[in-house]
Amino acid sequence: MEILVKVLGPIEVRDTEGRPVAVGSQRRRELLGRLVAAGGRAVPLSVLVDDLWEDPPLSAAGTVRTFIAELRRALEPDRLPRTRSHVIATVGTGYALRVPRAHIDAHRFEDALAAVRDEPSGETARALSEALSWWQGEPYADLDASSWVTAERARLAELHRQAVELRARAMLDLGRGAPLVPELEAFAAAHPWREHAWGLLAHALYQAGRQVEALASLRDARARLLEQFALESADSLDHLERDILRHAAHLTPAPGGENRLRLLTRTEATGTYTRLRSMTTVARVAAFTGGTNLALAQEQRAAAAAEAERAGDPDRTARVIAAYDVPTIWTRADDPGRSEALVATTRRTLHRLGPGAPPPLRARLLATIGLEHRGTRDRWAAEAATEAERLARDLRDPNVLVLALNARFVQSFQRPGRTGERDAIAGELIDLSARHDLPMFEILGHLIKIQVHAARGDSQAAQRHVVAAERLATLHETPLVHVLTTAFRTMCLAERSNDPAEVAYAYRTVATDLAGAGMPGVEAGIFALALLSLRMRHRRPAPTNPDLDWGPYRPWAQPLLDLAHGNLAAARHAAATLPTPPADHLYDTLWTVNAHTAILLHDASLATQAHHALTPLRGEIAGGTTAMITFGPVNDILTTLEQHLKRP
Prior knowledge:
Blueprint: E1 3-6, E2 12-15, H1 26-37, E3 43-44, H2 45-52, H3 60-75, E4 88-91, E5 94-97, H4 105-115, H5 121-132, H6 147-173, H7 181-190, H8 195-207, H9 211-229, H10 235-245, H11 257-265, H12 272-287, H13 291-310, H14 314-322, H15 336-353, H16 359-372, H17 379-395, H18 398-411, H19 419-436, H20 439-456, H21 459-476, H22 480-496, H23 500-515, H24 520-523, H25 526-537, H26 554-564, H27 568-576, H28 587-601, H29 604-614, H30 634-646
Antiparallel strand pairs: 1-2, 3-5, 4-5
């Protein structure tokens, strides 16, 4: 008999036809709940005893075994005596619940929340509306507040709050904020310390046409945060207030992702070439608004290029590709497959055009290759960026040159220790863009400067560029900039704060902002790395929360996760199979993680590799290039590695 277990409310068990299954007394339900909370992992008998009794009697172990036998009979009534249980397995000295995750409401809720974090807003809103409907009250509502129950309730309650906020954000992105107002008013009042909740409420009020109330709610949020928690309001609230006052376009998007896509593709042009070039041009403009529009714009640009190539005219294909000149600040593509398809189309188009292609068009195509094929050590991509820059300088065309400089910036990560080169690129971008009214590339120059100064540990110099970038972003309605500058401020907080909980909370806010920014190449795994940096700086084990998304960085974290779980053999195996960190913004971060692993495992070979990799970065801050996370001075890491290597 298959069973369904509910713990999002009173503990309840039913069979697959919906009939209730009696599992006995409160003690037996608590034991079942404790096994549910373990998430399929085995719970030792001694732990079960300590969790079920504050002062265990001498007979506690025997009582637990009796409860297990009774639960097995209740959950598997057709099982023959003395045969193996398929629902509650004996694992060593403990027990594990072997019920599929989809059959346990709490696990199904966690999985639904994790699955939609990168999904389009429409899918997120639908899936989370359904998932939130599974809640029937406080988790484990019929159990007393023992230590494990309290901890599990708190964990699930936090996931519930995240789901409420993520669903609200998705609904707002779809332009459907008005119906959310009563729900968000209650939510913000119940959780007054969550700055993000107040921002969602104000945004919903604005979409409901209640601008005055939206601004009043933000003022109320500031007052409550200061009075009740002695907290200054988050920068995101200040940014939202400014956006409301100037009626920023991104606050009231067109309803529905599909409708937005149709708006982007619609044009009065009837010719195929004009239509495709217009699609790319409109996508370029939409990309600056971030969020869902950025993802749609990138998708539309790739689709237009592919369709143009199928039409068979390389000159027109080239012009469709070249019409999209959006600055790139990060070296990991949001959609690597889509980027590589675009690179392949661009390279084929260049080949078909031949050496007689107009130099401005050729330069733009070469810059596109350099920009899209980033985060690699492929020399041909760096050569494309260099050739694009040479052509642009010969042409004396600032519009082409800023694109080529951007390509050279992302290709500069092919080798470590080129912070000075990036500093010079940023300076030229700022100067060139200011003189020729190219605000998006002027913003890019300031963002690169923030990264450069963060890598050098000069937060005061970086802050000057934060102010400049935010001023331009507000003027030109590019909200993505504020997400990145907030991440930099959180990095500064991590450097000066002695309270890791405070910093972790700030990073969680950044992760929430990134989740709606339309930049999965930045977002994926960065929160987990930020928490790891905090743990390492405070000499604590790696974070082992199973819900933590390590994104593409799990291989480098795995040895530390194994050590945190006490599995030395697995840690050594993972360390022996570590891949080489890619040539991108996280190069020094991942080598710093490797250095930490080498020291903990006494792995001289890995320590030597880490020392060699980090040596070109002497004098810099490990992780600083991201302007988001910090692992401290590279010099300190190198010194620790040298001391480790000197030991016999």
